[in-house]
Each structure stands twice: as structure tokens, then as C-alpha cells.
Write a structure and sequence with these properties.
The relative contact order is 0.13. By secondary structure, the chain is α+β, with helices and mostly antiparallel strands. It has two domains: 149 residues, Jelly Rolls, CATH 2.60.120.10; 88 residues, Orthogonal Bundle (Arc Repressor Mutant, subunit A), CATH 1.10.10. Helices cover 37% and strands 24% of the residues. It contains eight helices and 13 strands. The protein has a six-stranded antiparallel sheet with strand order 1-2-3-10-5-8. The radius of gyration is 19 Å and the shape is globular. Strand 6 and strand 7 form a beta hairpin.
Length: 259
């Protein structure tokens, strides 16, 4: 089916959309769709659309009705909450294979559910978009996907606990090391499935601004910059480009992150 240009009813973006191609999706092994067989994927493809986004696009605003769920196929996004009298507070990041909508699976999807946060694009990329009502019916017919969603929720809860520990107990050097390793784990699929200018090197893409990192880690942008500079001077990481860092001594980073 040819791509069509349309006005998105959720966030007002102008998007190009096309029918989903679930069987050939690059991130399916990492997504909630991983356990589905070919026949289930064909049904899901009829429900889904692939939409392209650009850096800076708003996927949804805080308080928007949840009309769609999304799986990130490529690119990077951030979740944030609006803070009175200041810029948005970054609460998390989404990369390939991540599912936007886990917060709304608590036994039953309520009709009046609204997003408790905003989602904004840190780079260009693609999303698989699923209408909420149609997808909830799909889950009832294919319970394997519900088990995968519960597994994703469990992982997110573990990550949230680790983040609370990071904010409350770690120093700046430990926080930055932990964050770099988190990005490395989240972006691992991209190094395996997409072309890179640094093949064979363990690299991390930094698609976000210093103030976003600072907000997420409970630091100031200046402290973030100093901590990154110190890791470079110590030979633990190396700057490959304006937004790409090589992990020269991953084991040392892990030791620092562990405190």
C-alpha cells in the first residue's frame, strides 16, 4: 500500500503512514510482538500503521487521551512531565523495541485513560501505531502478547527501582557511568541490525541534550559535562563524533556504576 499523508488526531503532527509490516519488522524480537506466529502477525498488521517522526516532534502531550499505543521501530524519544514555572522534567527514554502504553495495562484499559506524561522525539525515526480499542480486542484473542506485556511491565518496574537507587545513593561519576551503560543496553539492537560508521566498536549514541541528561539523573548540566570529561580523560570512553561515544573500558564503567 502506498504511503499516505495525514493529519494525526493524537498530537497534530503531519505524518506519513503506511500499513504495518509485522513479519519483517526489525525490532520484533525485542517487542511485545515477539511470541506471535505468522497468522497472528498478519492480523496485527491489518490493525497497525507505521508512522515517521522527526526530531522535535511531539508524539503526545501530557493529558492527551490514549487513542493509540506505539512500538518504537527506530529512533529515540523521551518521556517528560510538565513542571510549573520551568522546562519539562525528563522521566525516561524510549528506543527500538520499546512499547509506549505499558502504564495502561492494569487488567482493563479504561475508556477515559489519558497520558500522564508527554513524549517527544530526540531524533528522526519510526513508530508502529496501534489503535487502543482494536488492540485491546486483539490481546483478548491472542493472550501470548499479554504475557509479553506483563514481562515488559516487570522489567520497567525493575528499571524504576534501579533509577531510584541511582538518584538517591550514587555520586556524579557513578550516575553518568550507569547512564552510559543503560543507553548501551537499550541501543544494542541498533548496532546489530543497522548500518554504523563504527562497526566493531562498542558505541553509544547520545541523541539528547546535556540538560535532559541532567534532569533525568538529578544533576546540573555543568556536573554532567564535568563527569563525562573526566571519563574521557581517564580513558574509559572516547568521543567518536558530536553524538557518538565509544566504550573503551566497559568493565571499568561497570565497576564505577556499581559503586
Amino acid at each position: 500500500m502506498p504511503m499516505k499523508k495525514q493529519k494525526d488526531p493524537l498530537c497534530g503532527m503531519i505524518l506519513h503512514a503506511e500499513r504495518g509490516k509485522c513479519a519483517s519488522c526489525e525490532v520484533r524480537a525485542l517487542s511485545i510482538c515477539a511470541p506471535l506466529d505468522r497468522s497472528a502477525l498478519e492480523v496485527l498488521a491489518d490493525l497497525s500503521e507505521v508512522v515517521n517522526f522527526r526530531k522535535g516532534d511531539s508524539i503526545c502531550a501530557e493529558g492527551d487521551p490514549v487513542d493509540y499505543f506505539f512500538t518504537v521501530q527506530s529512533g529515540a524519544l523521551k518521556t517528560c512531565r510538565l513542571q510549573s514555572g520551568r522546562r519539562d522534567l525528563v522521566t525516561g527514554f524510549l528506543f527500538g523495541g520499546d512499547f509506549l502504553g505499558l502504564a495502561f495495562f492494569a487488567g482493563q484499559i479504561e475508556a477515559d485513560t489519558h497520558y500522564p506524561y508527554a513524549v517527544r522525539a530526540l531524533s528522526k525515526g519510526r513508530l508502529c501505531r496501534l489503535p487502543r480499542q482494536a488492540f485491546s480486542k486483539f490481546i483478548a484473542d491472542y493472550p501470548l502478547i499479554e504475557k509479553q506485556i506483563l514481562a515488559k511491565i516487570s522489567l520497567k518496574l525493575e528499571q524504576a527501582e534501579n533509577h531510584i537507587l541511582l538518584l538517591g545513593r550514587k555520586n556524579a561519576r557513578e550516575k553518568i557511568s550507569s547512564f552510559i551503560l543503560q543507553l548501551d543496553d537499550a541501543q544494542r539492537f541498533a548496532r546489530q541490525n543497522l548500518e554504523s560508521d563504527f562497526q566493531g566498536v562498542d558505541t553509544v549514541d547520545f541523541p539528547l541534550a546535556r540538560h535532559d541528561i541532567a534532569d533525568y539523573l538529578g544533576m546540573t548540566p555543568e556536573t554532567v559535562s564535568r563527569a563525562l570529561t573526566q571519563l574521557k580523560e581517564d580513558g574509559l570512553i572516547r568521543q567518536l563524533s558530536s553524538r557518538c561515544v565509544a566504550l573503551v573500558q566497559r568493565q571499568m564503567l561497570e565497576e564505577i556504576a556499581a559503586g
